[in-house]
Amino acid sequence: MKSKLSDNLRRVKDRIANACGRVDRSPDEVTLVAVTKYVGIDVIRQLVESGCGDLGEARVQELTQRAAMTEEMGQRSPGHALGSAKGQAPPNWHMVGHLQRNKVKPLLQWVSMVHSVDSLRLAEEIDSQAAKLDKTVDILLQVNAAGEKQKFGVAVGAVPHLAEQLVSLENLRVCGLMAMAPLAGEADQVEWTFARTREIFEDMLKDRALQPHFRHLSMGMSQDFEQAIERGSTMVRVGSALFEGIELEKPDNPD
Ligand SMILES: *Cc1c(COP(=O)(O)O)cnc(C)c1O
Prior knowledge:
By secondary structure, the protein is an alpha/beta fold. It has one domain: TIM Barrel, CATH 3.20.20.10. The protein has helices at residues 2-22, 41-49, 60-76, 104-108, 120-132, 159-166, 187-205, 225-230, and strands spanning 31-35, 54-57, 92-95, 113-117, 137-144, 154-155, 172-179, 216-219, 235-238.
């Protein structure tokens, strides 16, 4: 399994590098967030040992469980710790799925970045819970660039205003935008979604109130990460492409 995973990882990284090459970008500008919702803790451990420092989950319960496990692994075997075996820091966990306000509190202890903030009320809840933990939380605003068919995300026209409203929240940093292309989207719809999101992103880069933190564009999944990179993505959230040919059961979570 390990070599299969390494092969997949190498292939995805090559594809990222090639996509960067096509548009004269450096691969260093693109963070690979490995979305682990399909796999168990053994695979997660191997990902971290292979140098994946950024992991993502779509649900709060899974993220908190898994983040606790990766931290525990690190503590249990100092010297061979997850975080130290190859001089790696412990993984950053990214919350990429829809987030409900009542789940914010358990999430915050473990999460490095929340990609899916789509309302003022949710942002305010994150800010107030973060204040209680004396933390500052990095967030992205999820943009509904594909239009009405998508359930989550802020309407494109409302994104800049929402970002400005969040500038005054002290325990939260607006670090950029996140978008998802329509799942069964035609190639041109995918292209359009990414292009539209990038447009609004570039406009917002000019807003001094959002500097210096506003700089990430989280776009691209297994199906479309190369297109997303060509459209300026700085974070790709890749799951299935990493786990092709690997047993997908989740031993730590039989449900
Ligand atoms: C599952 C998921 C991903 C990864 O999807 P793949 O198509 O398996 O790469 C990315 N982003 C979000 C929000 C997800 O829920």
